Structures are given as structure tokens and as C-alpha cells.
Amino acid sequence: MDVDISDILASVSRPVPAARYDPTTPSTPYYDDNTAFTDHQLLTRAWTSERCAPDLLPYPTELLGRVMERVQAQIARIEDLAAGAGVGDGSSNGGVGNVNLVLSILQTDLSRTQFLVRSLLRQRLSKLTRFAGYYTSVLDADRKDDVVAREAGRAAAGGLLSGTEAQFLRGHQALLKGFYEGSFLTGFPQKLRRLDDGGTGEGGMQEGPDLLQVVVVRCLGERWGNEERVDAGEEGVSTVLEMERGQVWVVRWGDVRGGVGEGALEVL
């Protein structure tokens, strides 16, 4: 069987782009070409950051939209090849062997992408269920901010949760509240039945992410700092940091949460 393995690999390989970070673009670094390869790198980075960060990161709507489109196209291509669509005479030039090898490569690549997407979403759902009360309050605050922005004629900010995640969180809280009420809350005085009583501070009923947890981050931009956030008294930000491109630091999550959300830093 005369098979040129280089030609087969080239037919299913991804081009390697030149990457540059653009600090004006939130959440994702800048790439010269919006290719499947760059999206896979961004997906891997989002998966790693979500696993290592104690808090939910902004939902990568555009990235996952492009990835899922490619997944559907990949599935269709695999089905066509498996059914023999577009394949010539299998007895010539080892055609059947070539198709089987291409199918194996495509299926391996598809499985890798599906694993990253599923693991990313499971990590997010795990945080949602663990800190459901906290993220419900965040969701309510974001909704109010969006209403104010629309009334003022401004564009609404990108959401922390996707629409499906927000629906899941609402349903989860409704089921939990119904279970608690049926189990023991009805025996409490009316003023003691709220599940969000006291907020997330000391003595509150809502558990939030640990802003003091230590994380390892790398700077992607030319320079990043959080001095403005410290001066503004942002929650969890207590130490002034100044990082340069390529530096890797071990820091508290609260001090770098904003930089990770903007895409200026990545969690390792």
C-alpha cells in the first residue's frame, strides 16, 4: 500500500498562527487568524483557568459558539467518510486504509475537543451548585445593571453566566428552597425563612468563593496592575501588584481576579 503519511496528516492538520496579546480586547488574546488552532488554544486556556480559579470566570460565549460549530462540522465529516461519501475506488492506492487513518485522526481530535468542553462546563456547574446563593445574588445584580445600562442607552456588559447556566441556577435554587420549606423552614418564624439572610459576609448564610485562595498566574500583556482596583476598594483586592509580560507569580485570587477576567492574566 503506497501511502504518503505526510499528505494525510496535512489534510487534517491545523495551521500554526502568530499570536499577540491585545490588551484592548477583553477575555481573549489577539490572534492574526481566527483559526481552529487558535480556538483550541483558547479553549485549553479557558479550561485550565476554570479548573484552577476558585471563582467562576466570564462565560466564553463567542469561543464556545465557534468551537461547537466546528464540532458539528467534524461529526458530519466523520459520518460522510464512514459512509464512503466522497471516497473513490477503495482498491486503488490503498484508499480504504487512507480513509481509516483519516477517520482515526479526526475522531481523536473530536474526542479531545469534546472532553475539554464537557470538563469546562462541569467545572462551572460544580461552582454554581456549591455557591448557588452567592451566584444568584450576582445574577440579580447583573440583571439590574443591564436594565440601568439599557435605560441609559449603553450596551449591556457581558454576562458571567450563559443563558442556560442562569436557567439552571434559578431552577436549582427553586428546588432547594422548596425542599427546605417542606423539610423545616415552615416551622421557623417568617423573618427567619430567607436563605440569603445576612449576605456573604461574616455571619451570612451565603457561602462565596474564597478570595484569599492562592493561585499561580502568568501575565499575557506588556504590563498589568491593579492599583486602580485597590484605590477603589474593590472586594478582595488588598495588595498592589505590577506584572510584566511572561512573569509568573503566586498570588491571592482576589488580587488578580479582575485581570484574569479581562484576559490580561492566565491561571496556570
Brief sketch in words of this structure:
With 268 residues, the chain is mostly helical. Helix content is 52%, strand content 9%.
Structural write-up:
The chain has a domain at 210-267: 3-Layer(aba) Sandwich (Ribosomal Protein L9, domain 1), CATH 3.40.5. 52% of the residues lie in helices and 9% in strands. The chain has eight helices and seven strands, in the order αββαααααββαββαβ. Residues 101-181 form the GINS subunit domain. Pfam families: Sld5, SLD5_C.
The helical percent reads 40-55%
State the end-to-end distance: 45 Å
Can you tell me the residue ranges where pLDDT is under 50 for at least 5 consecutive residues? 15-33, 148-157
Overall mean confidence score, pLDDT: 78
Rg: 24 Å
Total of DSSP H or I helical runs spanning 4+ residues: 8
Number of strands: 7
Per CATH, the class of the domain at 210-267 reads Alpha Beta
Approximately how much beta-strand content do the residues carry? 5-15%
CATH architecture type of the domain at 210-267: 3-Layer(aba) Sandwich
The CATH topology of the domain at 210-267, please? Ribosomal Protein L9, domain 1
Which shape, going by the Cα principal axes? flat
| SSE pattern, N- to C-terminal | HEEHHHHHEEHEEHE
Q: Main sheet?
A: 3 strands, antiparallel
Strand order of the largest sheet: 6-3-7
Helix-strand category: mainly alpha
List keywords for this structure.
52% helix, single chain, flat, mainly alpha, two-stranded antiparallel ribbon, Ribosomal Protein L9, domain 1, 3-stranded antiparallel sheet, 268 residues
